[in-house]
Amino acid sequence: MKHFEYYPKIEYSNNLAVNITVRGKIRDAIKQNLALYYKYSIKDGERPDIISSKYYGNSNYTWAIFYANDIFNPLTEWYMDHANFMKYLTKKYDSVEYSTQTIHHYEYIDSYSDNVYIIDEETYNSYLGKYETDSQKLRNVRTVSIFDYENEINDQRKNIYVLDKGYIFQITNELSNLFL
């Protein structure tokens, strides 16, 4: 990846290696200016290099997509399409069925503020017993399965920001100056 040419070199096991533990940071002012970014929703099967090619004309700027979205490990932090999500659940929890049938946590939704709070099982059961005949109040508590929890995290990863290509060269220059 061309981006790594800017990283400092270190000696490792008597070899000169790229110090990948160093991570440049896009200036906070630039990252906070959402006018410099496009919102993008990842489609099933789209990889970062495909999006880079689509927006910047080649895959050399895949790293910029990671930076703009604070992705440190694309293997674990990139959106998974349905098939890969099912494989992930099977590998992590032995089966998709287990993840759908096992409670991850309990939630209480405040009717006034719409804030969601994680509660323990005892509080959840207490709430169920106290309001068992009040269906309106029972809607304020729910169980969240492992599947739903993992799926929500994955769905959030689907919406990313892509830096406007007019700024990609500025960012590249800033990073090269950081590491020189």
Present the secondary structure layout.
Elements: E1 9-12, E2 15-18, H1 28-32, E3 37-41, H2 48-56, H3 62-68, H4 74-77, H5 82-93, H6 96-101, E4 103-109, E5 116-119, H7 121-130, H8 135-138, E6 141-145, H9 146-158, E7 159-163, H10 165-179
Antiparallel strand pairs: 1-2, 3-7, 4-5, 4-6
List keywords for this structure.
180 residues, alpha+beta, 2 domains, two-stranded antiparallel ribbon
Number of strands: 7
Rg computed from alpha carbons, rounded to a whole number of angstroms: 22 Å
Helix share bin: 40-55%
Give the N-terminus to C-terminus distance in angstroms.
18 Å
Note the overall shape: elongated
* Count of structural domains: 2
Structure report:
The protein folds into two domains: 2-78 and 161-179, no CATH class; 83-154, no CATH class. The protein has ten helices and seven strands. The chain has 180 residues and is of the alpha+beta class.
Outline:
By secondary structure, the chain is α+β, with helices and mostly antiparallel strands.
